[in-house]
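Entry 12.
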Amino acid sequence: MASKLFLIVAVVAAALPFAAVADYVRPPPRPILNSSLSSLPPSIPQQVHISLAGANHMRISWITPDENAPSLVVYGTSPNNYPFKAQGESTSYRYLTYRSGMIHHTVIGPLRDNTTYFYKCSGVGPEFQLRTPPSKFPVTFAVTGDLGQTGWTKSTLDHTAKSQHDLLLLPGDLSYADYLQPGWDSFGQLVQPQASARPWMVTQGNHDVEHIPILKRGFIAYNARWKMPYQESGSGSNLFYSFDVAGVHVLMLGSYTDYDVNSDQYIWLKGDLAKVNRGNTPWIIAVLHVPWYNSNTAHQGEGDGMMAAMEPLLNAASVDMVLTGHVHAYERTKRVYNGKSDPCGFVHITIGDGGNREGLASKYKEQPEWSAFREASFGHGVFNVVNTTHALWGWHRNDDDQPVAADKVWINSLSSSGCLAKKKKELRKLLLAP
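Predicted 3D structure (tokens):
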């Protein structure tokens, strides 16, 4: 009976997009928001955001203009009562004539799952609250890429706030500061209401690189401000890492760092996948910036090199879904591998439509057989992993500032199919290859 219900819901959901697309007029870009820097006292925490930091731990990150503000977090499970405290670390950076404030990173825990905590940063200022993710299914991810700081960004953020997600995945292009460092500060202020309450797990995009030959190496601002759990996952770089939440193993990969089979990233990825137990984490998701499957005319072929190096390994490991950005439009594929539909491949999602200032990529090529749904509109995704076998993916278009469910589909995990056994030898061969 349950399987029949899933089938009925899937058929109805799949029929929704085709009715919605015909009458929809795509919106133009919106202006960049004027987020003036805060006039708070220099000791008051600003740009607060949180991320996972290993099992049962959370990293709190914030900035203070005051160099002497402590990297201290006090916290507890009731308002204005903080029986626990943790001391962290601080850093800062210079970028040409710009100097950042003190950037603090403090890990708190161990924390109980699915629990609300109240906390203060540097021991002063406003009280924030966060909710830890669950340790068991169901678990819900919000997904948005190429976010930026426009009116559409705010619309997307408002919509994700209503999605009751447990954490947010961002496949690159965060602030669109593009070398102008105050843009990172205004972005931090813009996202603070959400990013201080639910973990934001991010990877880098091309607008985050900010490399100046001879003068500045890339990712200075990104690495200083958005520290992810790379050390906790055995990675040597903040540009690629992994984490577990509930029964999902998430790979955050770097499109703009070396990825060939001899690279540090590829070697780390093999080691990480070798440790995955599909009994504990039956779902695997990969997040990166540049799409591998893209029928939009924008950015054609830019992901081919990474795809050639890593797709065989991700396929052999039976990764369920790959989430990407970069192309400013939405596209969902069927399960796909090696350029064609494959029932044991992954679902590839392009969702670089969070609200960037450059506008939408509205031109598509003739639709390939592996492309299931595509639309050039601003929006966000919600991935609700219901149990070990079923998850509901939905893409929500920003239609006149209302989140419209334009594309929905039920997805079965590969761990519940015969694909794991089918690809076991292939995976072992790739993992043992020198």
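Annotation: The two ends are 48 Å apart (CA to CA). The longest strand covers residues 402-412.
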